[in-house]
Amino acid sequence: MSGAKEKAASHRVSTSDDVEVSTYLEIAKEMQGVQAAPKPEEIPHGAREAVAIIDFGSQYSHLIARRVRECNVYCELFHYDTPLEKIMSIQPRGFILSGGPASVYEKNAPLTPVGIYESHLPVLGICYGMQLITHQLGGTVAPGARHEYGQAVLHLNDDKSPLFLDLEESLTVWMSHGDEIMEMPTGFRSSASTENSPNAVISDGLKIFGLQFHPEVVHTPQGKQIIRNFLYNVCGCRGTWTPGNFIQESIAAIKGQVGNGKVICALSGGVDSAVAAKLVHAAIGDQLTCIFVNNGLLRREEPERALETFRKNLQMNVVYVDASDLFLDNLKGVIDPEQKRKNIGREFIKVFESEATKLGKIDFLTQGTLYPDVIESATPETKAAAKIKTHHNVGGLPSRMALTLIEPLRYLFKDEVRNVGLELGLPEDMVWRQPFPGPGLAIRIIGEVTRERLDILRGADWIVMNEIKKAKLYRQMWQTFAILTDLRSVGVMGDGRTYGYLVALRAVTSQDAMTADWARLPYNLLATISNRIVNEVAGVNRVVYDITSKPPSTIEWE
Prior knowledge:
Elements (H helix, E strand, L loop, with lengths): L3 H6 L40 E6 L5 H10 L3 E6 L4 H5 L3 E6 L25 E4 L1 H9 L3 E17 L13 E14 L5 E5 L7 E3 L4 E4 L11 H12 L8 H16 L4 E5 L3 H14 L3 E7 L7 H13 L2 E6 L1 H7 L6 H22 L5 E3 L4 H5 L28 E3 L7 H10 L4 H4 L19 H20 L8 E15 L2 E14 L7 E2 L4 H14 L3 E6 L13
Parallel strand pairs: 1-2, 1-3, 3-4, 4-9, 10-11, 10-13, 11-12, 13-14, 16-18
Antiparallel strand pairs: 5-6, 5-7, 7-8, 8-9, 15-16, 16-17
């Protein structure tokens, strides 16, 4: 994508909606001095196949990474100004250049890292990436006479191109660009065209390819096959990135990192921290102790169920701490969502630190950080991302704790985490548990968090989950939950006037929470949920349904 239209859409949103309790070890500004855990590039690769994705700020960059992973090939996103040495540390077999909001002929337009073309490794440029190839290798890019947004028909004129093996001569593709290739670099030729783009696909016939369209989006039906063809037919990958291989590699790396040290892990009840703990436990056994903190912001019966599940299925040391009163007292009078998160984070640090000191000398902390957290956090790794909320597992601990982080899932997407969990033998009900935010119900209560309002929300949430499971829709949803708003409305109950709370319902479908669509729940199901809430939950007389997708909204309301 290039031109002004993507500039308006290029601000990426955060995946705030699946945050483990351990996320709150990084919120306060004073959290500095934690040593970085070894990243995949520092781990011996063995048979790992990798591809480097150079990110120029496209809203679709994470989708490129997903498509590559779906082809069982490991990949990482790198900001365009990342030094080549760091990029090459993952031993890539090829490069994919993403789209972006800029135009290559603009002053200070982002450029491909120096040395990419000289590496003689395969390169696939997508939209802006294709225009960069053209611009940097001597061709000409200029504003097009006609912009091309939406679906178009691609006509192939090169039946020998390795990108289009086993595909039809005409394909539906998704275009989103305003610039056009006027003159190709020396030695390049056009492999396909659309009505408005005579050079919709270009290639040097060897290892460098450019696509004007976006193969990573679902609106290009054969896009995944095109990416797969690049990975397998051009880069020579075989698809060795599997849950089993990941587990073996991670266990070996954790053993080497930890040695005889002691590790603690903050369990939240979610799949991320559970899988991270199980993976670390598989590597070092009883050197790991897990801590489950009940912050008073969990759902009905959740502390008891989570603790039972942990002890039954994780078979490791689990310390339970009920700190409900401390957290709720710390939220008195707090309305601002960011302040809620920070207060919860700071209180969690105090509780966690107190429990950790009881265990003696601790060397490492395990966190359930996922790749979406890394991609969309404003960290040195992802400079193009906009920080939307304070929540990610990408920070550190107070320097006085001096723990080294172990983040074995840091480069995995949610579906990959679930596959690893199943491979490790975790039960399906744990692996497929819907994401639950680290701040818990505090960010599902608009306004001040009180015990009374928590009871109201727990009652409504219980009904939502009960009916969704009864309708056998739980596994089809990414998240389903209730929000207690700070609005009250007039109602009539028992022939009398009421002035009760408004509860909102939220149900979304998604693959990784980076984008989400509102779920088209059956009307009769919505009616049942609404009827039960207003009849069974005291203080509520109105229920509404949120039909906003992400973006422009986030999944959680705060």
